Amino acid sequence: MKRLTGKFKIWTALFAMAGLMVGLAPASAMAEDAKEMRPLELTPPPQIAQDLEDDVREGALIAGSPAASGGAGGRTFLALSGGVKAGPTGVAGYGFDNNSVITDHQGNPVMFQNAEYYGHGGVGGAAGLYAEARLSEFIGLELGINRTRNTAWGHEDKNHAGTGVTLTRIESRQVTWSTHVPILVKGVIPSDTARPFLAGGIEIVSQTDSMLEYDEDPQAAPASPDYIDLLNERNQIETTTYPLLVAALGVEVLAGPFVIPFEVRLGYALGHDRNDPDSRAWYDSSADEIHYDGVFMSHFAVFTGLMYEFDFIP
């Protein structure tokens, strides 16, 4: 019995050593594999990779867009701009009818069979400085100051009472220098390239210098030279200040921080009645002079220029 027990112990020890050898063999192989193991590279399928790339690009664009830079809806809260505008202008005015009654400086009505202040129109030019404050890119308040020079021509044909044949043409020319101060509210359609706009407001016109002269274009029978001299001496033009009701339509082209405006303006003088001669002229009986108000009833302008714009409150 003792012999069997001793043999059993020997066999048990042998089996244990064999098991240990078998267990060490895989472990050694794994160690060798670990030495050759490379970092794991995960390569997504092509479509998934493209989707990931598009998402990253879209995210970068959104992060750099105006919507991410501030302001309601990504728009600048308050932008300021300043610069110059210039362009051709046009004016027109009403004349006085024959047999107009004009009150003299003593309050006496005087009828003039031939007032000889004709309806007139013409062209000129303007240039000035402008500044604008724009709220949320939609609403703007524009202030400006222009200097203008306009020349307006008028005429009246003197016809034969019996035949109607034109005998001569009396021509007038009014030249006026003015300072204009427009105050306009603008409605703008925001854009990154070109911004259409509508505007309206008041423009104060202050005439600083004006002259009126007469000449003749003789046809069949020239008038007496003395009559032309009479008109030049009797008819005087006065400078005046008056408001215009103004409407404007245009577009602003963007070039970096610069804005190039193109606009058309229309204006009509307020506070003047064409059918009331006393509101537009007065007669100095002591000097035999009629003093006409030099107001131009209608105004027209086409402007362009260059403005510099920057975000004051993003």
Question: What report would you give on this structure?
Answer:
There is one protein chain. The protein is built from four helices and 13 strands. Strand 11 and strand 12 form a beta hairpin. It has one domain: Porin (Beta Barrel), CATH 2.40.160. It is α+β, with helices and mostly antiparallel strands and 314 residues long. The strands form three sheets. The protein has an eight-stranded antiparallel β-barrel. A three-stranded mixed β-sheet has the order 8-12-11. A two-stranded antiparallel ribbon has the order 2-3.
Secondary-structure blueprint:
Blueprint: H1 2-36, H2 46-64, H3 66-69, E1 78-93, E2 100-103, E3 109-112, E4 120-135, E5 139-159, E6 166-188, E7 194-218, H4 225-234, E8 235-238, E9 241-255, E10 258-269, E11 281-284, E12 289-293, E13 298-313
Parallel strand pairs: 8-12
Antiparallel strand pairs: 1-4, 1-13, 2-3, 4-5, 5-6, 6-7, 7-9, 9-10, 10-13, 11-12
